Amino acid sequence: MTKRALIVYYGNFPENRGILQLVDNLRKMEINVDVACRDSDTSNDDLSLTVITKRQSVGYAKRSWLFFLLSVFRNSKYDIVFYREIPLFLHLLAFKFLFRFTLIGDIRENLSGMYMSGHKTNIRRKLIAKFVWPFVTLLARLFSDVMCFSSGNLAGYLVGYPKRNKNVLVTPNYPTGTYYTKAENELSLGETGKINIIFSGHIKQNRGVDNLYNAMQQVDPKLRSRFKIFIVGDGEDRERVEALFDKVDGVDVTFTGMVHPDEVIRIASSCDIGFMGYSITANSSLTYPGKLFEYFACGLHTLSTERKSVQGLDIPENMVTYYKDVNELAALLVGFATSENMPWNKHDINSYARRNYSQESNIGKLREALHGIYN
Question: CATH homologous superfamily of domain 177-356?
Answer without folding.
Answer: Glycogen Phosphorylase B; (3.40.50.2000)
